[in-house]
Amino acid sequence: MKKIIAVLLVIIIASGAYMFINNFVQENLKAVDIYDESKLSVEIPSGSTTVDIAEILLENNLIRNTKVFKYHAEKIGADSKLKAGTFVFSKSMDADDILETLINGGSSGNTLNITIIEGLTLEEAASSIAEQTGLDYDKIVALMTDGQYFKEDFAFLKENPDITNLQGFLMPDTYNIYKNASEEDVVRTLLDQFDGFYMDEIKPRMENAKLDFEKTIILASIVEKEALLDEERDEVAAVFLNRLDINMKLQSCATVNYAHGEWKERLTYDDIAIDSPYNTYVVEGLPPTAINSPGKASIKAVLEPADVDYLFFVAKGDGSHYFSKSYDQHIKAADEYLD
């Protein structure tokens, strides 16, 4: 009887806590003043993160709580769609009204969206930015290879002063920038987005991480290329971390492809014999730098890998992988799934 009562108490407390939190969130998503329809012009600078935007809105008394606004924007998938520019709001608008306005774009019409996809090398990212904006490719590359130039402006560079090349830290995302933005403006926008992710998501997890910060990003860049499905990233990360734990070579095809400067679906014996510090079929441990700029999912996978003892995986041909614990199991899987 006591156990039943205890369980009921836990359920009641949990239900009460949920209702309290839900009511708190809903209350803070309401309009600041539903009767005040006076227009207020607000400038959202290019490169602003969701946190930056929330702070600007709070300063103008347009939202009730920055953390609730950010949480709601992420929950409904609006955080990556918010644009810069000049917007007209009123205190009668609730959070959803404000987000819709920010997604539709400001009245100035002087911004554009650019998208940096996951897994691009520094040169590929620079090329993508140049193609989307008309900016100078060489200037972009020069900035991206000079981490020291930005070291006083971003926490992750201040706290990791040895970083010189910014490959690995150019956060993939969709950005709304001013049409007259300079090469430096755009690079700073990418770094600012990474810095926010570093402070909010990476740094709090580092205490329990298996690797230090720079090595975490290096491994995440490998996971980015090896795993096609988000739901497998933590398992792929676990395989490589398990190998590192027992001093087993990573044998990542992605690193060999990076060493060759081209992507091949199937590597030959000659390919994996290349003399390069990025050839993890030959060298032990991680390569010296990230091989691309990974997305958030790959970074989180390395910080919070799956609790499995796999040491091998083989592509099944449909984007997924077969994971195995032993070499014999791996060979059987390779015979089944590879031509």
TrEMBL record:
The keyword Cell wall biogenesis/degradation applies. One of its GO terms (molecular function) is lyase activity. It holds the Pfam family YceG. The keyword Isomerase does not apply. Signal peptide: none annotated. InterPro entries: MLTG-like (IPR003770). Keywords: Cell membrane, Cell wall biogenesis/degradation, Lyase, Membrane, Transmembrane, Transmembrane helix. One of its GO terms (biological process) is cell wall organization. Its EC number is 4.2.2.-. This is Endolytic murein transglycosylase.
